[in-house]
Automatic annotation (TrEMBL):
One of its GO terms (cellular component) is cytosol. NCBIfam families: cit_synth_II, PRK14034.1. GO terms for molecular function: citrate synthase activity. Keywords: Transferase, Tricarboxylic acid cycle. SUPFAM superfamilies: Citrate synthase (SSF48256). CDD domains: BSuCS-II_like (cd06110). The active site is at H256, D307. Pathway: Carbohydrate metabolism; tricarboxylic acid cycle; isocitrate from oxaloacetate: step 1/2. The keyword Transferase applies. It catalyses: oxaloacetate + acetyl-CoA + H2O = citrate + CoA + H(+). It comes from Cohnella faecalis. This is Citrate synthase. One of its GO terms (biological process) is tricarboxylic acid cycle. Belongs to the citrate synthase family.
Length: 371
């Protein structure tokens, strides 16, 4: 038995939700480029859960259900007030999502009907708790969700307490579409491993949030913004990046386990970053990002992944950098829950083997005789 480090190239599940074939990403067989240009996030969530695009009445039904479920129990909001104000936002999200299960009477109902409903609930509630967390730590009151609006609108509205601009809603909606699913990435795999023990959907999503938090995965979008803030100016890009490259340090937002020739989502986020810069009348972050890309791709051949240009986009939308990864979770919960539903359809415990590389033939030594 020989281990493959990081399970690279190992096919660990059969799935009909999303595919990456020859560098092309599809959700349920539809190219991500088409979805990014034409679909709303709610259409995409429906597509991931049900395997087909919704009709108008199915879409209206989903939006109504999201509105119905978006409010979270007052006990959950009260518990958010008790978190330290400097809590890590992903740790807070992981904790609050775990607590949502305590107030859901059907949390342990394993029927498909209940699980589909819980997928919609989680999708509806994540934006509410992220926005409430962000406001409470600033000493502001949470804003109740609106009914009959999309996830992107509602999140921006609950975050700021103001009607969001149409252009901001459209940008956020596209970002949500682009992050919704991605085959067997680490957080989705974590969710599938958890529920394959026949644990519940909340446990699967909590596992996934924990995996997404790390900077090699979803946490990279925040790390990119930390880097852009550290660089500080267009003039400082070259010396800063050159120094990192010379010292063989990682440049966050570059590289990918599966895409070696570029992440198809990055171009959409790059375009969004350029457009937001033009609209804001300040393209510095976009120009800095392009300069970083030129240097890193030019010297290392590494291409930007989905996390790279999302950092400048979210900043230009006025979002604090430690909410970037929670926003990723707001989108990816659609994919996680679709994978949980798929796992339950034909479940088998996920339990690989380890290659043992430790000592053999050892014996127990009584404590008094240990040196
Ligand atoms: C939504 C997402 O999860 S997308 C990924 C988000 N993560 C990041 O942006 C973090 C930065 N990127 C990385 O750390 C990696 O590229 C990962 C984690 C995404 C993929 O990791 P792996 O498939 O294990 O690639 P691995 O780390 O083996 O890299 C292969 C080579 O490229 C180098 N490399 C990979 N990414 C980078 C990077 N961002 N900067 C500099 N060098 C890099 C590695 O150092 C390694 O070089 P070597 O062969 O000389 O040792
Ligand atoms: O697939 C991966 O390994 C990481 C990624 O891009 C994602 O989760 O969107």
């Amino acid at each position: 038995m020989t281990a493959t480090k990081g399970l690279e190239g190992i096919v660990a599940a059969a799935s009909s939700i999303s595919s990456i074939i020859d560098g092309v990403l599809t959700y349920r067989g539809i190219n991500i480029d088409e979805l990014a240009e034409q679909a709303t996030f709610e259409e995409v969530a429906y597509l991931l859960w049900h395997g087909k695009l919704p009709t108008q009445s199915e879409l209206d039904g989903l939006i109504a259900q999201l509105g119905e479920f978006a409010e979270v129990p007052s006990e959950v909001i009260e518990s958010l007030r008790l978190y330290p104000k400097d809590s890590n936002s992903m740790a807070a999200l992981r904790t609050v999502v775990s607590s949502l299960a305590l107030y859901d009477g059907e949390a342990n109902d394993m029927s498909r009907e209940a699980n589909v409903r819980k997928a919609v609930k989680l999708q509806a509630q994540l934006p509410t708790v992220v926005a409430a967390f962000a406001r409470i730590r600033q000493g502001l009151e949470p804003v109740a969700p609106k009914k009959g609006v999309g996830v992107a609108y509602n999140f921006l509205y609950m975050l700021s307490g103001k009607e969001p601009a149409q252009v901001a809603v459209e940008a956020m909606d596209k970002a949500l579409v682009l992050h919704a699913d991605h085959e067997l990435n680490a957080s989705t795999f974590a969710a599938r491993v958890t529920v394959a023990t026949l644990s519940d959907i909340y446990s699967g999503v909590v596992s996934a949030i924990g995996a997404l938090k790390g900077p090699l995965h979803g946490g990279a979008n925040e790390a990119v913004m930390v880097m852009l803030d550290d660089i500080g100016s267009l003039d400082n890009v070259e010396p800063y990046i050159q120094n990192k490259l010379n010292n063989k340090q990682k440049i966050m937002g570059f590289g990918h386990r599966v895409y070696k020739d570029g992440d198809p989502r990055a171009k959409h986020l790059q375009q969004m970053s350029r457009q937001l810069g033009e609209l804001n009348g300040d393209s510095t972050l976009y120009e800095m990002s392009v300069k970083i890309e030129d240097l890193v791709t030019g010297q290392k051949g590494l291409k930007p992944n989905v996390d790279f240009y999302s950092a400048s986009c979210y900043t230009m939308l006025g979002i604090p950098r430690d909410l970037f990864t929670p926003i990723f979770a707001i989108s990816r919960v659609s994919g996680w829950t679709a994978h949980v539903l798929e796992q339950f359809e034909d479940n088998r415990l996920i339990r690989p083997r380890a290659e043992y590389v430790g000592p053999v033939g050892q014996h127990y030594v009584p404590i008094a005789k240990r040196g």
